[in-house]
Design goal:
Elements: E1 5-6, E2 19-23, E3 26-30, H1 42-96, H2 117-124, E4 136-140, H3 147-155, E5 159-166, H4 169-181, E6 187-193, E7 196-202, E8 206-210, H5 213-219, E9 225-230, H6 237-246, E10 247-255
Parallel strand pairs: 4-5, 4-9, 5-8, 9-10
Antiparallel strand pairs: 1-2, 2-3, 6-7
Helix pairs in contact: 1-3, 5-6
Catalytic activity: guanosine(26) in tRNA + 2 S-adenosyl-L-methionine = N(2)-dimethylguanosine(26) in tRNA + 2 S-adenosyl-L-homocysteine + 2 H(+)
Protein name: tRNA (guanine(26)-N(2))-dimethyltransferase
EC number: 2.1.1.216
Length: about 270
C-alpha cells in the first residue's frame, strides 16, 4: 500500500499563513512556525498503517475463534443439562407409575421425547449471536502534527480510537486543529432520555493529550492499550519501559529504528 501526498488543489479553504499537506485521505495544515513534519517519513507511515491494519485483522480473527469456541461450549452444556432434565423426568415418572397402570395408555405420550416440542422450544429460545468486531486502541506517544494518528483513525477500520500525545503546547494546538479538520474530534449529540433530550459528548476517534510521554504511558498501566507507537527524534530507549507497561500482553509495540534502542540517549 502506498499513499499519495500533495500540497495542491485543497478540498477546502486554507487559512492565511498555512499550507495544506495531504496523505491519502488525511489532511493537515502546516505553518512554518509550528509543529515539525518530515515528508521523507511518508513511506514509514504507509508501512505502519499497513502493518497495524493487517495485525488488527488477525487479532480480530483470533478473538472471533475464541468466541466461537465459547459458544460451542455453552451450547454443549445446554444440551447436557436438557438431557439430564429429561432423564430425571423419566426416572420420576417411572417411580410414580402404579403396577396396574403399566399397560400402554394415552398418558404415556406426555413424557418428553428426544426431538419433542419441548426441545424445539428450548432451541428456538436461544438468541442468535450478534456480529462482533474487536476494535483496537492506539497510543501515539510523540505525535507532533498528529498526521500519523489521523491516518490510523481514517485508514484502519478496526480502530476504536487513537490517543495522540505531545509535550509541546504548539504541537498540541496543531494536532487539535488537524483533528478537527479531518472530522475526528469530540462532538456533542442530542440523545433522547425519556421525554427529555440530553447532550452526550463523544470524545472523538483521535483524542489529543498534552503531557510527558512516559508519564502518560505509565498512567495506562491499569487501562492498557492494544498498540503503542513510538517515533522519537532519537533513540527510543528512554520510553521503552513505559511503553511495555502501557501495552496489553501479546499486543503490539512499534518503533522507528533510525536509532538503535540500546543507543545512549543524548
Amino acid at each position: 500500500m502506498s499513499s499519495s501526498s500533495t500540497t495542491t488543489s485543497p478540498p477546502f479553504p486554507v487559512p492565511d499563513g498555512f499550507k495544506l499537506h495531504t496523505e491519502n485521505n488525511a489532511h493537515i495544515l502546516m505553518s512554518e512556525n509550528e509543529a515539525f513534519l518530515n515528508p521523507v517519513q511518508e513511506f514509514n507511515r504507509d508501512l505502519s498503517v499497513a502493518c497495524i491494519r493487517t495485525w488488527s485483522e488477525e487479532l480480530n480473527k483470533a478473538k472471533d475463534a475464541k468466541r466461537a469456541q465459547a459458544r460451542q461450549k455453552r451450547a454443549s452444556r445446554a444440551k447436557e443439562e436438557l438431557a439430564k432434565k429429561r432423564q430425571r423426568v423419566n426416572e420420576s415418572d417411572a417411580i410414580d407409575i402404579e403396577p396396574e397402570s403399566l399397560q400402554p395408555s394415552e398418558s404415556t405420550s406426555e413424557i418428553p421425547q428426544a426431538g419433542s416440542k419441548e426441545d424445539v422450544q428450548v432451541e428456538s429460545s436461544a438468541k442468535p449471536e450478534e456480529k462482533f468486531s474487536y476494535k483496537i486502541t492506539i497510543l501515539e506517544a510523540l505525535s507532533a502534527t498528529g498526521l500519523r494518528s489521523i491516518r490510523y483513525a481514517k485508514e484502519i477500520p478496526l480502530v476504536k480510537y487513537v490517543l495522540a500525545n505531545d509535550l509541546s503546547s504548539t504541537a498540541v494546538a496543531a494536532m487539535k486543529r488537524n483533528v478537527e479538520l479531518n472530522g475526528l474530534g469530540p462532538s456533542k449529540e442530542l440523545e433522547e432520555t425519556g421525554s427529555a433530550k440530553q447532550a452526550n459528548t463523544h470524545l472523538g476517534k483521535v483524542r489529543v493529550n498534552e503531557g510527558d510521554a512516559c508519564a502518560l504511558m505509565y498512567s495506562h498501566r491499569t487501562d492498557r492499550v492494544d498498540v503503542v507507537d513510538l517515533d522519537p527524534y532519537g533513540t527510543a530507549a528512554p520510553f521503552i519501559d513505559a511503553a511495555v507497561q502501557a501495552v496489553k500482553d501479546e499486543n503490539l509495540l512499534t518503533e522507528e529504528l533510525a536509532f538503535p534502542i540500546t543507543e545512549v540517549y543524548p
